[in-house]
Specification:
By secondary structure, this protein is an alpha/beta fold. The chain is built from four helices and five strands, in the order E-H-E-H-E-E-H-E-H. 30% of the residues lie in helices and 23% in strands. The radius of gyration is 15 Å and the shape is globular.
């Protein structure tokens, strides 16, 4: 198992807000954080099992359509290693076999990473197109900040640096 942290951006760049995970992961990748591997994934959920199987620490980012009266850009946080994702988030993927299903299959096979966090950002428009809704752009920025902070709590303090 790798000691690196996997940040997995999931989505479809041609389905408007469905690309939220991809955009957030690209923003994290641009920060060039040490010990962080960033992957962008647009394929079906079965491909995800192969990607995360060698990591102990995984953070996945995906668009969410909760089908509730929620403001677009709202951020959801799930500790997927602790319990399944809520059922209302299972039918939102543009793939037949999405992230939630891949997590549960991985759990059932005993292959789920030790720590598996999922950040979902409520989308507004999942129609064809490459433009993200204005309402979700702020949510993307916020989820990037939260993930960078979370990664900071996982990474060891470099030698020569002392905790105050």
């Amino acid at each position: 198992m790798s000691n690196d942290i996997l940040v997995l951006g999931i989505g479809n760049q041609f389905r408007s807000d469905d690309q939220i995970g991809l955009l957030a992961a690209k923003a994290i990748e641009a920060k060039k954080l040490p010990n962080v591997v960033v992957r962008l994934e647009q394929r079906d959920g079965l491909a995800l099992l192969e990607i995360w199987k060698s990591f102990r620490l995984v953070i996945a980012i995906d668009a969410v359509c909760s089908n509730q009266k929620v403001i677009p850009g709202t951020i959801y946080y799930f500790e997927a290693d602790q319990k399944p994702l809520p059922t209302q988030f299972r039918s939102c993927s543009t793939h037949a076999f999405g992230l939630a299903e891949a997590i549960e299959l991985s759990r059932n096979l005993g292959m789920l990473p030790t720590s598996f966090t999922v950040y979902g950002v409520e989308g507004k428009n999942f129609e064809e197109g490459e433009e993200v809704s204005m309402e979700v752009k702020f949510g993307i920025d916020q989820v990037v900040e939260r993930i960078v902070h979370q990664i900071g709590t996982w990474l060891p303090i470099p030698s020569g640096v002392h905790d105050a």
